[in-house]
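Quick one, tokens below. Sequence please?
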């Protein structure tokens, strides 16, 4: 479902436009000015429709703030002049107010279609093994990630990558390095959470002989090893405060001082940091230096959790399955229909890494030429759904999409999963709302509704059930 941001200061026009778009299945948010629109992060949307004349800055100001998201300008002055000016500044098109509903809907559909055909290409990443592979996924949130990588990589600035564990933060760091002018030099990856606190400073910054008990020889640190190249600090939220102070010096002065040394040395390192934690919140409790947070956060790339990339899950699963099959010499193995459905509906709290592990298990355990749900060994959905999915994205048409659910497969597995579903719904539907049921099952409300129809358990009207 495409997301549209309406920026219009007249509440009546704004809500009329919202109702019109929502009736045509668009997801809509509203703002009354450029400032309000900026606070909503216009790059999260697929399209911005903005009035030209707004209190404060004009709507055309959003053209570069929302880029690469297209901005459609509305103007009450159907004069060619303001419209042409907006187009010159990069607006994708304009509509004159009062607008004809059909005309507006047609323009919106055309712009969104054009945008979809100009998708950002996923970057190719060379793995440490030397093999090149693209990042997998085409959903709008990943499109934004790809376009951020493309724009940020050559800029030689510090980048902060945020996302849950296993979402692909290291992959993004590799892409940034490989598309930068430092690509010929080293990329040094360090997981700050994996190094004991007592060793991390000497690992990163090096030490002189005799600097502490056990320092029998002088040693070069990893920051210095990245000189001329890129240093990727994963889980930077785990870095102790002393090490944070030293790192800040590297960023501010471009200088490094080994532990136990009085001399400094100039280093030229691009820093890419990643975290699954909220560094700003950590800075409020004194666990992370606010000045370091500001230094790191020049550019930010946010990776969505896998449960919010519903339309990409099976695409990623197919690519990872092919790799796992090659690794284990089991080419030609496929997922059963029930296994595809389970992969699609599971909430993946451990994200792509968990999916990769489940497929590896499946490849090892599968006995025939199909991988069944039991081979994947996923926890029951109710135990594994830490967070609800976002409102549902359109699900693939079962029989049409190549990455869809209705691949050939065994009916037996289907039955047991559907039995489980039926049982769960019948047992809990009197106490739970539809939203709660869907969350517990780790599926979208739309999936829940579709399965109710398919299995013939329509929603009962019960006076005891909470309304959604
Ligand atoms: N979009 C993607 N396409 C293909 N493979 C992916 C994608 N995202 C992640 N992966 C794979 O998933 C695994 C986990 O990714 P990665 O290590 O980059 O995650 P991470 O966010 O850095 O995790 P952590 O924070 O736990 O270190 C890797 O094997 C990576 O190759």
């Amino acid at each position: 479902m495409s997301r549209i941001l309406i920026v219009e200061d007249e509440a009546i026009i704004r809500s009329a436009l919202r109702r019109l778009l929502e009736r045509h299945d668009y997801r809509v948010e509203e703002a009354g000015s450029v400032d309000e629109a900026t606070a909503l992060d216009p790059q999260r949307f697929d399209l911005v429709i903005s009035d030209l004349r707004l209190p404060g800055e004009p709507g055309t100001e959003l053209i570069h703030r929302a880029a690469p998201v297209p901005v459609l300008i509305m103007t009450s002055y159907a004069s060619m002049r303001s419209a042409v000016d907006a187009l010159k500044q990069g607006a994708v098109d304009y509509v004159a107010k009062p607008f004809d509903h059909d005309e507006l809907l047609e323009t919106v559909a055309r712009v969104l279609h054009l945008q979809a055909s100009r998708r950002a290409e996923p970057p190719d990443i060379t793995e440490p093994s030397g093999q090149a592979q693209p990042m997998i996924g085409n959903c709008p949130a990943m499109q934004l990630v790809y376009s951020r990588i493309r724009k940020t990589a050559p800029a030689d600035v510090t980048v902060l990558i945020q996302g849950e564990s296993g979402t692909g933060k290291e992959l993004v760091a590799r892409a940034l390095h490989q598309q930068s002018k430092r690509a010929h030099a080293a990329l040094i990856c360090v997981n700050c959470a994996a190094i004991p606190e007592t060793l991390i400073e000497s690992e990163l910054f090096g030490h002189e002989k005799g600097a502490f008990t056990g320092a029998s020889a002088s040693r070069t640190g990893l920051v210095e090893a990245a000189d001329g190249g890129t240093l990727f600090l994963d889980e930077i939220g785990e870095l102790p405060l002393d090490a944070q102070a030293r790192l800040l010096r590297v960023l501010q002065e471009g200088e490094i001082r080994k532990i136990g040394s009085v001399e400094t040395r100039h280093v030229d390192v691009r820093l890419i940091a990643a975290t699954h934690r909220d560094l700003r919140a950590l800075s409020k409790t004194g666990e992370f230096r606010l000045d370091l947070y500001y230094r790191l956060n020049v550019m930010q790339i946010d990776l969505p959790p896998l449960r919010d990339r519903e339309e990409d899950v099976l695409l990623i699963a197919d690519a990872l399955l092919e790799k796992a099959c090659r690794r284990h010499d089991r080419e030609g193995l496929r997922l059963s229909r029930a296994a595809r459905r389970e992969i699609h509906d599971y909430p993946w709290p451990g994200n792509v890494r968990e999916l990769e592990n489940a497929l590896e298990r499946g490849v090892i355990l599968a006995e025939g030429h199909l991988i069944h749900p039991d081979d994947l060994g996923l926890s029951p959905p109710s135990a594994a759904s830490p967070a609800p999915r976002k409102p549902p994205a359109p699900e693939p048409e079962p029989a049409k999409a190549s990455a869809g659910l209705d691949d050939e497969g065994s009916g037996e597995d289907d039955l047991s999963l559907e039995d489980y579903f039926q049982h769960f719904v019948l047992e809990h539907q009197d106490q739970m709302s539809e939203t709660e049921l869907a969350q517990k099952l780790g599926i979208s409300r739309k999936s829940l509704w579709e399965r109710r129809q398919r299995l013939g358990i329509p929603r009962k009207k019960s006076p005891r059930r909470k309304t959604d």
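The pocket of adenosine-5'-triphosphate is lined by residues 135-137, 163, 165-171, 234, 276, 316, 352-353, 356 (CB under 6 Å). The chain is about 40% helix and 15% strand.
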